[in-house]
Specification:
Elements (H helix, E strand, L loop, with lengths): L16 H10 L3 E5 L4 E3 L8 E14 L5 E7 L4 E2 L1 H5 L8 E13 L8 H24 L5 H16 L3 E3 L4 H8 L3 H13 L3 E4 L2 E4 L8
Protein name: Crp/Fnr family transcriptional regulator
Organism: Candidatus Acutalibacter pullistercoris
GO molecular function: DNA binding
Length: about 220
């Protein structure tokens, strides 16, 4: 186990490095490297292990009966996934977890985290954070128009980054899936917004603009 990968991992916050190896053994931890596009967990299967992203990024996706994909979340280092299903091992996954870029994940048994109250508390905080992100997505997709959804999401990202220039954690297709809109329609709307002087964009990089007539 490459323990340096756990430095800065919120799940292990407050745990001295000297205790990591013992704790990892207690919770049955194992590392897994993954490639971009590789499926770590598939909808329909059952799991007794939750995951922690150590490096790279994964997306949590839902695929309906006809193959349509919705991106529910994008998770980078320190974020957890499948913890609810791991605590309810008889419940089949309703989502899939896929590598958005090459990286590494740590799988462990959440049922054994109770042996250490620090890990249990950290998991509760991470789960609360995830619930907030999912609630935020519902807010972003509540608008009936593509522009409304884009404005909601980009406004939040600007506020979160404290800057009108920022990079989002999605490709254009992933953003379309996240906002539940057609990719070509999203690109068309972004093009209209750029021509109207509302933003500049290049791949995942955005700059929000204020039109001259809107300046105070």
């Amino acid at each position: 186990m490459e323990l340096f990968s756990l430095v800065g991992c919120p799940l292990f916050a407050g745990v001295p490095e000297g205790e990591w190896e013992s704790l990892l053994s207690q919770v049955g931890a194992r590392e897994r490297y993954f490639q971009r596009g590789e499926t770590l967990l598939s909808a329909g299967e059952r799991t007794q292990s939750m995951g922690v992203v150590l490096a790279g990024r994964v997306t949590v996706e839902h695929h309906d009966f006809w193959g349509n994909r919705s991106v529910l979340d994008s998770l980078g280092p320190g974020k957890v996934f499948a913890e609810t299903y791991a605590l309810l091992p008889e419940e089949p996954l309703q989502v899939s977890v896929t590598g958005a870029e090459a990286g590494k994940a740590l799988f462990l048994s959440p049922g054994k985290l109770g042996r250490d109250p620090r890990l249990l508390r950290n998991l509760l905080l991470l789960t609360a954070e995830k619930n907030l992100r999912l609630s935020r997505r519902i807010f972003h997709t509540s608008s009936k128009t593509i522009r409304g959804r884009v404005l909601s999401y980009l406004s939040f990202e600007a506020a979160r980054n404290g800057s009108r220039e920022f990079t989002i954690p999605f490709t254009r297709q992933q953003l379309a899936d996240y906002l539940e809109v057609d990719r070509s329609a999203l690109s068309h709307e972004l093009g209209n917004m750029a021509r109207e002087g509302l933003l500049r964009t290049s791949r995942s990089r955005f700059t929000l603009l204020v039109k001259e007539e809107d300046r105070p």
